[in-house]
Write a structure and sequence with these properties.
Rossmann fold; 2 domains; alpha/beta; formyl-coa transferase, domain 3; three-stranded antiparallel sheet; 13 strands; single chain
Length: about 400
């Protein structure tokens, strides 16, 4: 048994934030019916690179779902969605606020059809506020949220995080909201509207940047790989690359110096306490790199690990997907795609002892499950489905 087995999700999302949310639900056992535009499907089906004619991007975040093509602007297409929503526990959409209402598929309309429905909306700015109707992509939200102002090598080069974290965190928070609403429904018997915004999600993960600003009144600035409150807690240069080190307390600092034969630094008053080390961070890094720049990455890590000092390499993607720990945790798995063959995708990050999730199937072909879903759930005949297709409703 999987934890969300028996939960049926109607997925009206596309691109990343919404599909990431429904992917998590699918991995945990929910039946996810992905509604896509006829002919074109999800926008991300056109995103490069392609493998066997299929988008690797699309395949990576839509595994385990069923694809049904429906024209939401066609009256009969809308009727199909309403009928499907009546049979589902959850509906997830990530259109711009107002679009679903224009289609006659907003929360108020769906609540009448199915009072137990959990209706989740994921958008750039949320369903309320002056920005609610503005278009949003991850880059835009990372900039507005302040995330780019604290990321990068220095204040002159604001930098986005390498992954689309505004989209992804909105998807994660969307999944959490849906699970919370499902739990509440067990008590109240009623569904509710889950409203998650990418901007809200970024504010929630600004972490110590907000705490520092509220404490000091000074807006934080990017510091590269340094930590604003702990030192050494950064990347140090080796002869063949860099090593990340994290000395979170004075004991780890002492071990760090001993491991690398730099006990003389323990006598330097500039580095006597963490606050002193933070104040003299540039001088500290130069002093450390006088020693480490002549050593290889593997040598530094071996010496630090021998004394249990937190450290690690800076892997590229080709290295991390072969990492022993990553493989032991089944975080790279293979699925068999009907057109592409074996496809590698990330595994399930949530490990449950009794009801584990799993990547059950590959991403669907466009409309692969249209007939199956419309016949098994709505009882439509093959002739009725063909007529809907000829009319442009599916």
């Amino acid at each position: 048994m999987r934890p969300l087995e028996g939960v049926r999700v109607l997925d009206l999302t596309r691109v990343l934030a919404g599909p990431f949310c429904t992917m998590l639900l699918s991995d945990l056992g929910a039946e996810v019916i992905k509604v896509e535009r006829p002919v074109f499907g999800d926008d991300s089906r056109a995103f490069t690179p392609f493998v066997g004619g299929e988008s690797a991007y699309f395949m990576s975040i839509n595994r385990g779902k069923k694809s049904v093509t429906v024209n939401l602007k066609h009256p009969k297409g809308k009727e199909l969605v309403l009928r499907l929503a009546k049979l589902c526990d959850v509906l997830v959409e990530n259109f711009r606020p107002g679009v679903m209402e224009e289609l006659g598929l907003g929360y108020s309309a769906l609540r009448e059809v199915n009072p137990r429905l959990i209706y989740a909306s994921i958008s750039g700015f949320g369903q309320t506020g002056p920005y609610r109707e503005k278009p949003a992509y991850d880059l835009i939200i990372q900039g507005i949220s302040g995330m780019m102002s604290i990321t990068g090598p220095d204040p002159d080069h604001p930098t986005k995080v390498g992954s689309s974290i505004a989209d992804i965190f909105a998807g994660v928070f969307g999944a959490i909201g849906i699970l919370a609403a499902l739990r509440a429904r067990e008590v109240t018997g009623r569904g509710q509207w889950v409203d998650v915004a990418m901007l809200d999600s970024m504010l929630a993960v600004l972490e110590n940047a907000l705490a520092r600003y509220f404490a000091t009144g000074v807006p934080p600035r990017p510091m590269g790989n340094r930590h604003p409150s702990i030192a050494p807690f950064s990347s140090v240069r080796a002869s063949d690359g860099y090593v990340n080190v994290a000395c979170g307390n004075d004991e780890l600092w002492r071990r760090f110096c001993k491991a690398l034969g730099m006990e003389y630094l323990l006598e330097d008053p500039r580095f006597a306490t963490n606050s002193e080390r933070v104040e003299h961070m540039g001088e500290l890094e130069r002093a450390i790199e006088e020693r480490t720049s002549s050593m290889r990455v593997e040598e530094i890590i071996a010496k630090l690990e021998a004394l249990e000092v937190p450290c690690g390499p800076i892997n590229d993607v080709s290295q991390v997907v072969e990492d022993a720990q990553v493989l032991a945790r089944e975080m790279i798995v293979e699925v068999l795609h009907p057109k592409v063959g074996k496809v590698k995708v990330p595994g399930v990050p949530i490990k449950l002892s009794d009801t584990p999730g799993e990547v059950r199937a590959p991403a669907p072909l466009l409309g692969e499950h249209t007939e199956e879903v419309l016949s098994s759930l709505l009882g439509l005949s093959r002739e009725e489905i063909s007529a809907l297709r000829e009319e442009g409703a599916i």
